[in-house]
């Protein structure tokens, strides 16, 4: 029989330290909620994409033999959050294309919740980040989104 361990503040603190050491991420534990949080900016940014379209974007990455850690954010509708390297400037036409496809990004310094365990409200899509692998460039995910949109599915 497999037992599910309820995440505790001490588990969140331990994972917080692991993300800092292994990946250099600016993580913290919210004192009120006990949530493990990541500050958006440098070295980590994120693009938030509606789940259906995000699946197409993820497929475009795989076709190009690339991957990004993806957090599944519950809600109505469900969204996927692709973790990337730092944000770069977009041309106006690219910005407009992302808005049309409901691709979102957060302000620098915003906090996102990281998965802590099986009962966490958010979860990794495919196992989370991998030690020794750099996050994809922000523009890599943007390019995959543009390619998926050009395929006409969205």
Description:
32% of the residues lie in helices and 19% in strands. The protein has 154 residues and is of the alpha+beta class. It has one domain (9-150). The strands form two sheets. The protein has a five-stranded antiparallel β-sheet with strand order 6-3-5-4-8. The protein has a three-stranded antiparallel β-sheet with strand order 1-2-7. Strand 4 and strand 5 form a beta hairpin. The radius of gyration is 16 Å and the shape is globular.
User: How many strands, what sense, and barrel or not for the largest sheet?
Assistant: 5 strands, antiparallel
Secondary-structure element pattern, one letter each? HEEEHEEHEEEH
- Runs in which pLDDT lies below 50 for 5 or more consecutive residues are 1-5
Percent of residues in helices: 25-40%
Strand order of the largest sheet: 6-3-5-4-8
The total beta strand count reads 8
Beta fraction: 15-25%
In short:
This protein is of the alpha+beta class and 154 residues long. The protein is built from 4 helices and 8 strands.
Keywords:
154 residues, alpha+beta, five-stranded antiparallel beta sheet, three-stranded antiparallel beta sheet, disordered N terminus
In terms of topology, how is this protein built?
Blueprint lengths: L8 H15 L3 E3 L6 E4 L5 E6 H13 L6 E4 L5 E6 L7 H9 L3 E2 L5 E3 L9 E2 L13 H13 L4
Antiparallel strand pairs: 1-2, 2-7, 3-5, 3-6, 4-5, 4-8
């Amino acid at each position: 029989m497999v037992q599910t361990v309820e995440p505790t503040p001490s588990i969140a603190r331990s994972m917080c330290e692991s993300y800092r050491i292994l990946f250099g991420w600016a993580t913290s534990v919210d004192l009120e909620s006990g949530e493990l949080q990541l500050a958006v900016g440098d070295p980590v940014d994120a693009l938030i994409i509606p789940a259906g379209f995000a699946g197409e974007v993820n497929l475009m990455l795989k076709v190009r033999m690339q991957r990004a850690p993806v957090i599944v954010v519950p809600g109505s509708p469900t969204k996927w959050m692709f973790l990337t390297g730092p944000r770069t400037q977009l041309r106006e036409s690219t910005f407009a294309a992302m808005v049309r496809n409901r691709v979102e990004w957060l302000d620098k310094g915003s906090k996102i919740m990281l998965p802590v365990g099986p009962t966490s409200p958010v979860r990794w899509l495919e196992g989370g980040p991998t030690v020794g692998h750099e996050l994809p460039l922000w523009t890599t995910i943007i390019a995959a989104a543009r390619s998926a949109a050009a395929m006409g599915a969205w």
